[in-house]
Amino acid sequence: MGKKMNKERNAKDDLGYKIINNIKEGHKKTIHVWKTITFTHLIWLFFIGSIVGYLVETVYAYMKFGFIISRQGMLYGPFSQIYGLAAIILLIILLPLLERGKVWLFIGSGIIGGLFEAVCSFIQEKVFGTVSWIYTEEMIPIFGGRSSLLYMPYWSILGYVYIQFIYPRLMDLVDRIPAKVLKISTAVITIFLLVNLTLSGIAVYRWAERMRGEIPDNIIEIWVDRYYPDEKMLKIYPNMHFPNNEMKTESLDDIISRDDY
How far apart are CA 189 and CA 55, in angstroms? Predict the structure, then answer.
């Protein structure tokens, strides 16, 4: 009997959280307690979150325009890294909020989601000189159009469902992968993501420089200009804007949305 109880307890811990039943004022409360997340868990969260984000953005673009448009965040593969990063940030911040109750989790998800969008947009513009989204007036923009009050309820729903249902089951699936296979696959994914993210950042940065009319001044920039010209970059990142450039640029989204298109 004792061994059986220990197995059941370990199975619950493998889900990425522990459940403690407290008796207070005659009512049973279930409290989700933070458990240390491993590097492997974070890599898989980022990897899967990036893929799911790409699929969500692709479906949204199809519903908006009526045909498939690239929503890649990296040069190679169906990834949108902002969603992968959101999966990690939301986990770190929202899990402790769950201890305060489900209402805190729901409200906190909306606030954190909205702030996350604004911060990512600000960093992207300051580092790369580009902007991937701008909320218009009908979406009740905040932080200069970097985030939207209208979309915060969606972040609330997403965060609540993610922490309560998706995350524990997802980690359970990852933990079921044989240890040797998990170790090798995690290493491969990590290297691939690092190379992909680094190359994507360099290509976008150089693209912004070309939009400002800057000529290449080293062998790396010459190589980037040759293999990642403006035409190729526009196909990969059709919703990219260059707000700080003297040269006015028009994204593919802008072109498609025009009345004369």
Answer: 19
Tens-digit pLDDT profile for residues 152-193: 999 999 999 999 899 988 988 998 999 999 999 999 999 999
Average pLDDT over the chain reads: 82
Report pLDDT digits (tens) over 106-159. Answer: 999 999 999 999 999 999 899 888 888 888 887 888 888 899 998 899 999 999
* Domains in the chain, number: 1
Report yes or no on 4 lying in a domain: no
Q: Stretch 81-96: mean pLDDT, rounded?
A: 91
Name 13's Cβ contacts closer than 8 Å, sequence gap at least 6: 35
Residue 142's domain spans which residues?
15-257
* Position 90 in a domain: yes
Residue-wise pLDDT tens digits, 229-247: 999 999 999 888 887 664 4
The DSSP code sequence of the chain is -HHHHHHHHHHHHTTT-EEEEEEETTEEEEEEE--PPPHHHHHHHHHHHHHHHHHHHHHHHHHHHSS-----SSSSSS--HHHHHHHHHHHHHHHHHHTT-HHHHHHHHHHHHHHHHHHHHHHHHHHHS-BS----GGG-EETTTTEETTTHHHHHHHHHHIIIIIHHHHHHHHHTS-HHHHHHHHHHHHHHHHHHHHHHHHHHHHHHHHHTTPPP-SHHHHHHHHHS-HHHHHHH-TT-B-TT-SS----HHHHHHSTT-
Q: How many residues does the chain have?
A: 261
Whether 167 maps to a domain, the answer reads: yes
The verdict on residue 72 lying in a domain is yes
